[in-house]
Amino acid sequence: MFTGIITEVGKVRSVARKGGAVAISVDAPQTAAELAVGDSVAVNGVCQTVTVVTEQAFSFEAVAETLRLTGLSALKPGSRVNLEPALRLGDRISGHLVSGHVDCTGMVRARRSVSTRNVDFVVQIPDELSRYVHDKGSICLDGVSLTVKAVGGSMVEITVIPHTLENTILGTWRTGTSVNVEVDQLAKYLAPRTRAKGGRKE
User: Fold this and answer.
1) Which of 85, 148, 150, 157 has the fewest CB atoms within 10 Å distance of its CB?
2) Are 1 and 88 in contact (CB under 8 A)?
3) pLDDT tens digit string along 3-35?
4) Any idea what DSSP says for residue 55?
């Protein structure tokens, strides 16, 4: 499990095909110092298992299904990635509980500057996931825990503050950017029960 609070932005060192999988090495000294082989780490919100660790970098292998469902397939040497080591029992949860099991990719449809240097983004997600996203609820985009500002059909609007823009890859988002999407796990668990009761809240 993760919290959606990015601890370091790493840089992809190498990408190598290994059959149907891809081995990816990431320069990230702060994160590498916390990891051991076999640990989980979220890379742009995707939970991956560490296969190699050095003082300055770590590596993982993304399998075919992960490459199909997430944006890891687009990574190349020099790509910047959001990183978060797995949550430890007793750690503070400053974001929300995130599994690292990405539901899909979405697309940035708009970027607008607003007051106090904040930026609003509109991200389109698949229609079938929109029922799990609600105003003032949580969503994880490229591994970042964010509060939903507004929802209109498949369009999800969020506001990103300067600190997040400067300390994650969200500052590089532009119209047309593909992003990893994980909807709130609690919403996914509760939605079927709510429907079973005819839409009444429990």
Assistant:
1) 150
2) no
3) 999 999 999 999 999 888 999 999 999 999 999
4) S
